[in-house]
Design goal:
With 449 residues, the protein is an alpha+beta fold. The chain contains 15 helices and ten strands. The strands form three sheets. It has a five-stranded mixed sheet. It has a three-stranded antiparallel sheet with strand order 6-8-7.
């Protein structure tokens, strides 16, 4: 099996992932003191190993235009630790269509009130033009349909397939690294692209993992790929335990999703304690190069050294194979940096688009909800009561008095969370600064792929 030995006696890789977000996937005690990772304690099992929601399927079928693919994701679909869904939690949907302008035109006929005032003035074709700005998504948040609170996004099939194949933005492809609930899929939709996206996620994760690892570690790294460069993560608008909260209660769903991908991979084999990956030999790296997304291995066309803020290149790199060979046997920070480059600008642009498409009020409400999720105990509300006496004179000149109770409510922010509330206030300014800073570098990377 391409140089994979069942005993896995090769010493564990010295350089593990240094990214702060992905490091949680690896247990330092196991990676530094021993080459054997003991069996992972069994996480809480989900109530079912298959995702289904007939009520939501019927809701989508009855209230929205036909699409090539529709799936639901988020905390309303997958149980998450520390994030139990409430009545105010939105169900997240994505609609994939081969004709965005036509889809919005049909949706305007029955659901025009879902759109903000500015989008209603632009009309369906104007909405399609706004959607066509990278990362090519259009979202309507805080929409109530048949008593269910929704946030639904629309993306064209062409842009989704490109994202799944090459990780163009990772905006929707990253969501499909995790288990989702497919509500509708047209038989003509090319599902092989989804499989290819999962295969890319698995083999990218192997670059960050030691020779021996558990399923919890594997799925944590895979889940982290779509978060490590997202602007909401960088601005602390996401719960720092979000990945752990997603993976631990849903290990069985992840196993079902990646089972066939793992079985067919020549680089990974199941063992008694978890998994063992093949040695990164010259032959294996040539095979892995074909399994990784193109944007992950960017080589300048002029043959100069790749630009990196974290990984030192001491010589020119002419081919992607040479680049992969240097990264695979050395420091993995370059791979993590490339993922950040792919994610950062699209997530910044989408944040600005959200203000335009959803409106200022809904954008503020959505950002505040995100901050509350990241810091659920940041706001304290106290109630106090006091008795007061009111004296009045009636028509006959008699003095009348009565007592009544006054209730007072006060809202206070805990001192430990002042920083996060401050971040919330200035987040849009920081989004602009990040866009200006990384735009040139992002365009260079885009031109080279």
């Amino acid at each position: 099996m391409y140089g994979l030995h069942r005993e896995c006696r090769r010493p564990e890789l010295k350089q593990l992932l240094r990214c702060r977000h992905l490091q949680t996937a690896l247990n330092p005690k196991h990676s530094q003191q021993s080459t054997v990772i003991p069996a992972t304690p069994k996480p809480p099992a989900p109530t079912s190993t298959s995702l289904s929601n007939p009520k939501l399927e019927q809701l989508v079928k009855s209230n929205f235009p036909k699409s090539r693919l529709c799936f639901a994701y988020g905390s309303k679909v997958l149980h998450q630790l520390e994030n139990l869904p409430t009545a105010s939690t939105m169900t997240d949907l994505i609609f994939v269509t081969d004709n965005p302008a036509g889809w919005h035109e049909e949706n305007f006929k029955t659901n025009k009130h879902h759109y903000s005032l500015m989008m209603r003035l632009l009309g369906p074709r104007g909405v399609a033009l706004v959607q066509d700005i990278k990362p090519y998504c259009f979202f309507n948040p805080f929409v109530e349909v048949d008593g269910v609170l929704l946030k639904y996004g629309v993306i064209s099939e062409t842009h989704l397939l490109k994202d799944l194949q090459s990780w163009d933005t990772l905006y929707i492809a990253g969501r499909l690294h995790k288990p989702v609930l497919v509500l509708h899929q047209d038989p003509a939709f090319r599902g092989t692209y989804i499989t290819r996206n999962l295969r890319s996620a698995l083999h990218t994760a192997l670059l960050f993992l030691p020779e021996r690892f558990s399923d919890i570690q594997l799925f944590t790294v895979i889940c982290n790929i779509s978060y490590c460069g997202d602007v909401r993560t960088l601005l602390k608008l996401e719960n720092h335990n979000k990945v752990k909260n997603i993976v631990e209660p849903n290990v069985e769903h992840f196993r079902n999703l990646y089972k066939s991908i793992i079985d067919e991979s020549p680089f990974i084999e199941r063992t008694d304690y978890g998994y063992c990956q093949a040695a990164k030999t010259e032959k294996n790296l040539r095979i892995m190069e074909k399994l990784l997304p193109p944007k992950l291995l960017y080589v300048p066309e002029d043959g100069s050294r790749p630009q990196s803020r974290t990984f030192p290149f001491d010589e020119k790199v002419d081919t992607k194979h040479q680049l992969l060979r240097k990264v695979a046997v050395g420091d993995y920070r370059y791979t993590e940096e490339q993922i950040q480059k792919i994610l950062l600008i699209p997530s910044v642009v989408q944040s600005f688009k959200g203000v335009l498409t959803a409106g200022l009020f809904k954008s503020f409400k959505y950002s505040k909800a995100k901050l509350k999720k990241a810091n659920p105990k940041s706001v304290a509300i106290t109630k106090s009561a006091s008795s007061e006496k009111l004296s009045l004179t009636n028509r006959e000149g008699q003095l009348m008095s009565t007592e009544y109770t006054v209730y007072r409510y006060s809202v206070s922010f805990k001192s430990a969370d002042v920083r996060n509330n401050f971040v919330f206030i200035i987040s849009f300014l920081l989004l602009g600064l990040l866009y200006v800073k990384y735009r040139e570098e992002y365009l260079e990377n885009e031109a080279g792929v």
